[in-house]
Structure to design on (448 residues):
């Protein structure tokens, strides 16, 4: 019931076309325009203040809700594909290094069911292959960190330019760029897995992924688009969290099916399915997603001035009474430190090895259940916390749950430790979303 209520609130914000007649909408818009014209005549024309007010009050609600609905539908396929690809890849890379390290001895752990039980059969505590298995774990973890590095380093600079030029070239550009990189990466890695190519070719896919902004670019596109289509204050915070929760929802729905899929067909076809889902999302964005950037005749600025405009927030005081430089820097620090501590790929490798030896189905069950729990609770508790807490205090509470999760996971030795650690992550999806909303409210629309 709580889950359906949360979805209802999100859908009500996204699409009310069936509940609002065209005549009522016209009357409201005419009244709003008349009121706006009167207020402009009676006020002192301050350009910076006017720009800030325009970013908070846009009467074209129906168009915004329609935009949000199209964005959610388009990105849902990408999130589903991203989830099923990520689940298959994070397990495949460990098994691939097991094959490379063990060679002919790979049969010691694989009797055709390695996706169900990636550990040794029986008691092999004294087996010389035990050390080789630990070597495979170490190499796969190192390779996962390497793929993260080759994608995130170029994506840092790419996202600076994408974010800066989105105010001139449009929001659709970020969606198309990010989704193109997702499709290219999934296609290259799937080809490596299918034809048994050198594993280092995976780095090519992740480099392309980084050159198109990594997953960060897609998240940036979603939240810029959400900010364009929402209003001021806590309403924006809630919609930011709801959009983030929808991402979690679709990703974790795919986690549930991926376990069965992997154990039935192996790792290649789930990765190909993820590739197809992301490709479909790219096509939908190209064909149907409206642009929210109003066309202007502004001159195109140089890359240096574009990047300088981003970092000027740290050094210049804009015409916005709620902006505080120290808060902006602090929120940026929280954002970076939090994202650096997720370690998604290494966690999967950790669960596949002893003492847990989780197979694909077990991993899919647990990650899907707790992921859906996160998606629901982060949305509902966000609205509840906002009744008596500021957004900043909500961030503190959710970060405390994140600290407890990391601590228990680091020293886990039993299945119940893992379950408890995942339970404590229930509020995590709201952290980054609230930080984005706080930062977004500090600046006018033209610099958001």
């Amino acid at each position: 019931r709580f889950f359906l209520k949360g979805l209802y609130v999100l859908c009500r914000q996204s699409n009310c076309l069936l509940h609002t007649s065209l005549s009522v909408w016209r009357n409201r818009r005419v009244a709003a325009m008349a009121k706006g014209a009167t207020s402009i005549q009676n006020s002192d024309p301050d350009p910076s203040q006017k720009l800030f007010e325009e970013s908070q009050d846009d009467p074209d609600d129906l168009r915004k809700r329609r935009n949000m609905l199209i964005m959610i539908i388009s990105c849902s396929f990408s999130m589903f594909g991203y989830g099923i690809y990520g689940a298959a890849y994070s397990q495949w890379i460990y098994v691939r290094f097991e094959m490379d390290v063990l060679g002919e001895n790979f049969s010691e752990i694989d009797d055709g069911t390695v996706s169900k039980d990636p550990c040794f059969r029986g008691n092999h505590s004294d087996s010389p292959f035990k050390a080789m298995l630990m070597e495979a774990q170490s190499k796969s973890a190192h390779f996962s960190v390497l793929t993260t590095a080759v994608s995130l380093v170029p994506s840092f600079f790419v996202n600076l330019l994408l974010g800066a030029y989105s105010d001139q070239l449009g929001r659709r550009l970020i969606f198309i760029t990010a989704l193109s990189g997702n499709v290219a990466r999934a296609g290259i890695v799937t080809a490596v897995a299918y034809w048994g190519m050198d594993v280092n070719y995976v780095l090519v896919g992740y480099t392309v992924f980084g050159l198109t902004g990594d997953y960060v670019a897609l998240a940036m596109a979603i939240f810029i688009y959400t900010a364009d289509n929402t209003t001021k204050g806590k309403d924006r915070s809630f919609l930011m969290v709801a959009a983030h929760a929808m991402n979690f929802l679709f990703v974790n729905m795919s986690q549930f099916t991926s376990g069965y899929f992997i154990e039935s067909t192996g790792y290649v076809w789930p990765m190909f399915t993820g590739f197809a889902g992301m490709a479909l999302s790219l096509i939908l964005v190209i064909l149907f997603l409206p642009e929210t950037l109003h066309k202007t005749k502004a001159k195109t600025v140089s890359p240096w001035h574009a990047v300088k405009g981003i970092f000027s927030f740290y050094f210049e005081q804009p015409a916005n009474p709620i902006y505080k430089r120290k808060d902006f820097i602090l929120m940026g620090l929280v954002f970076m430190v939090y994202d650096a501590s997720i370690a998604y790929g290494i966690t999967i490798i950790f669960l596949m090895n002893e003492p847990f030896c989780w197979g694909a189905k077990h991993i899919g069950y647990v990650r899907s259940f707790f992921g859906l729990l996160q998606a629901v609770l982060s949305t509902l508790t966000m609205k509840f916390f906002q009744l008596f807490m500021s957004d900043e205090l909500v961030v503190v509470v959710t970060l405390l749950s994140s600290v407890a999760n990391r601590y228990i996971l680091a020293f886990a030795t039993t299945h119940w430790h893992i379950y408890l650690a995942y339970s404590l992550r229930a509020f995590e999806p709201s952290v980054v979303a609230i930080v984005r909303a706080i930062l977004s409210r500090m600046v006018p629309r033209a610099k958001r």
In short: The domain at 2-447 is CATH 1.20.1250.20 (Growth Hormone; Chain: A;). The chain has one domain: 2-447. Residues 183 and 275 are 6 Å apart (CA to CA). The mean pLDDT is 78.
